[in-house]
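Technical annex, item 7. During the second reporting period the consortium partners agreed on a shared format for inverse folding records so that results from different sites could be compared directly. Each record opens with the tokenized structure and is followed by the designed sequence. A conforming record, contributed by the partner at site C, is shown below for reference.
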């Protein structure tokens, strides 16, 4: 069964709104990091984002006073380069977008879709019962180098593998040779830019993590669990070493790094911009 474009767009709006809310509800994250998400949600909803203030003024799905106010806030924001719109304004728009975007009708799965779901469930259960990793992006060719240590001081025997993305959730041991708690992870990759690029990095970790860019500590959230932390860098053309140090205390563990490139929608750093290096400290 095909998914209709309408359902697809509702799903996408929900996804970008969830991303916006995660940032806006974190008191430490700057609201401007949520701007690309809210803008994208409007673009999907209005099917036009070339001139968002104008499209909002024309949108008859909202009371006039409200749509004018929303249009004005985006106009002001465009004039001041993403710095003007407030957390309160963005949260109000997220609430309105949520209210006016009904959740898609979840249809029953048939045929190939049902088979795929069963197969996926089987793989997940096999992985759970084999006592290995929870959800990982482990891959033999990915651009990320992942090294796991049994202690948070990054010393002693380690397990090394490659991954396609800096996005891990572990319910048990992160590797068959590692304990399920109190381990540490070092993730590294080389970012290759053709031109000077503004990048907003967003990192969230359980239990804590630090982000280094070219050896310089850019985010320190070593003692902060489960909150997103953000940093903006104007990076020159060329190669940049991106390195994350992460640790777990107990229970589940996770690390996730996303980036908004030149104010685009936040997501994993595109693999086309990344190159694997076997040395975690050098590209
Ligand atoms: Ca934990």
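Designed sequence (site C submission):
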């Amino acid at each position: 069964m095909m998914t209709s474009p309408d359902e697809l767009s509702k799903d996408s709006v929900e996804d970008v709104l969830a991303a916006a809310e995660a940032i806006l509800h974190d008191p430490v994250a700057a609201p401007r990091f949520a701007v690309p998400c809210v803008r994208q949600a409007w673009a999907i909803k209005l099917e036009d984002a070339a001139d968002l203030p104008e499209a909002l003024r024309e949108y008859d799905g909202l009371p006039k006073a409200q749509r004018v106010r929303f249009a004005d806030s985006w106009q002001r924001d465009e004039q001041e380069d993403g710095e003007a719109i407030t957390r309160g304004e963005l949260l109000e728009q997220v609430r309105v977008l949520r209210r006016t975007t009904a959740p898609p009708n979840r249809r029953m799965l048939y045929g190939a879709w049902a088979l795929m779901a069963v197969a996926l469930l089987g793989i997940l259960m096999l992985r759970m019962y084999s006592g290995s990793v929870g959800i990982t992006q482990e891959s033999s060719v990915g651009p990320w180098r992942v090294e796991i240590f049994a202690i948070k001081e990054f010393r002693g025997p380690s397990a090394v593998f490659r991954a396609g993305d800096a996005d891990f959730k572990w319910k048990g041991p992160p590797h068959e040779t590692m304990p399920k708690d109190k381990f540490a992870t070092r993730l590294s990759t080389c970012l290759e830019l053709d031109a000077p690029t503004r990048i907003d990095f967003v990192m969230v970790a359980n239990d804590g993590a630090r982000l280094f860019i070219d050896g310089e500590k850019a985010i320190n959230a070593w003692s902060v669990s489960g909150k997103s932390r953000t940093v903006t860098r104007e990076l020159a053309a060329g190669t940049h070493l991106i390195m994350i140090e992460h640790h777990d205390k107990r229970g589940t563990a996770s690390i996730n790094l996303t980036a908004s490139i030149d104010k685009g929608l936040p997501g994993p750093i595109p693999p086309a911009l990344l190159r694997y290096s076997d040395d975690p400290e050098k590209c």
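The mean pLDDT is 83. Residues 5-100 form one domain. All partners now use this format for quarterly exchanges.
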